[in-house]
Amino acid sequence: MDHARRGQAHEMRLMKIGAAVILGVVCLGMALALFLVSRAIDARALRDEQALVERRVTRSLASISEDITSATIWNDAVTAIERDDREWMQVNFGDYYADYMDHAVTLVFDGDGALLQASRDSEPASAASEAPIIAATQSLLAEVRKDSTDAKRRRAVGFAAVATRSGVVRAGGQLYLVAAATIVPEAESPVARPPEDAVVISAKPVQALVTSIGADLGLSAPRLTAADAPSLSRLRSEDGTVLAGLAWTPEQPGRQVLMTLIPVFAGLFIAFMIAAAAMWRRIASNVRRLSQSEAALSEALAAADAANVAKTRFLANMSHELRTPLNGVLGMSEVLTMSGLTGPQRAQVGIIKQSGEHLLSMIERILEMAHVDATLSAPEAQAFDPAAVFAQVAAGLRGKAVAKRLAMTEAFEPTGVRLGDAGRVAKVLHALIDNAIQFTPQGSVRLELEATPDQVTFVVADTGVGMSPETQSRLFTPFSQGDDSATRSVDGAGLSLALAKRLVTSMNGQITTETRVGSGSTFRVTLPAPTVAIAAATPAMAA
User: Fold this and answer.
1) Alpha-helix residue ranges (DSSP H) falling in 73-137
2) Are 163 and 182 in contact (CB under 8 A)?
3) pLDDT tens digit string along 488-525?
4) pLDDT by residue (tens digit) across 399-454?
5) Is the pTM of this model over 0.85?
6) Is there a contact between 518 and 387 (Cβ–Cβ < 8 Å)?
7) What is the tally of helices (H) and strands (E) in the chain?
8) What secondary structure, in 3-state letters, does 141-168 show?
9) To pair with 358 at 20 to 30 A between CA atoms, which of 98, 197, 364, 522?
């Protein structure tokens, strides 16, 4: 018996030691995994920061080019060069760039490449004092003069005629962001363009770029480094030579997470060891509990890693990546819905999913509005059936109208096949019909389609609340609503009608409104849509 007990005790001790070893190995593995994950997060954050800096450098060079062309595309500038008016050049080039653009040096060259005027810090300067930067910008000057001889540019005026170049140069031991632009007339008459365009070169110290990296991008301790010193980004000349490096103190979100979780893991490890020492006679139960704890801990770690990766990507790519973390939330809510949740938990997950989908819809509207002016291309010109597109959009929203007990009637004139952009037409109609349903508590929504040989008119009329003249005046203003109070009865960001207005404008159409408080609203969208021969047309439907 004693031998058996000793054997059992020995076995229990071995099990206890084995459990402790396993626990130690598991915790060590978790710590290693957490360390590797934190390193990966930090590396990703650094790559994002480097991409931001590269974009800032590119944008700064483009900005300085835009700065100088604001004064080089000018009839007065062309005539001033012809009459060799140095005082005019100082005031309108040297003083202007220094006082309003924070440029340090401005050089003006005639059509033969000879220096006419030099200015530093809004004061005239001699060619001798500016010899270093004159020499450093000769290649830039040559490239711009070469570009200006292009036949297409010679026939043009204004922005189509100007030639520009930009880059980074070192002069007199200092780095500059430099841009060069030709001086061209803004119009053909009454100024005649000279045979060779004069050139303006203007520069600002790179230190201004370094300061903006810290102030605008929020990077810590930005600084210039020597060309051969360790750096996170590099400034290169036009021929690719490294002139200097850019360095800063990288953010380390992964390390911050690691330092936050280390005490938690340490506390858990100590708690596990105390529990194992106090309940060694029930090692099997402890092993089961430990297994459950490890599973929960692994799930929590995975969730924490996913949340922190999503947070890092969100912060680094906010203008263009708002939808990524929200899609992650919606995906996780689907996963939670399929897991073993209680009734209240399932209801809570349902609320998360519904709210996330609503927020995603608002973000889509906000992003589309934010980029519509910059990215909206010319509308497509394809054959489509206006009545079919109208009916398709109405069918998609009919369920929403039925849910509010609203009648939706349609009266479409035959239009035949027309030429236009069916996709944009569908977006406009969706916004108008959805708006009508939202702001009609009872009654009906009427849809009409009118046509002439060259255009079509879509009519969306409702019996809703209508609008006051003050509300109508800001109807198509982004983020504007009839009721801006926190207790308003209709949710939304106030973007649908603003987006519809811009889409209609992009198609050379018009949108008008007839409304009165308490009497509903009528929206009319008139678009150019010439008739297409049926034999040559394949009508397109809205995507």
Assistant:
1) 75-82, 86-89, 96-101, 131-136
2) yes
3) 444 555 677 888 888 898 899 999 999 888 888 999 99
4) 889 988 999 999 888 888 999 999 899 999 998 999 899 889 999 999 999 999 99
5) no
6) no
7) 16, 16
8) HHHHHHHHCCHHHHHCCHHHCCCEEEEE
9) 522
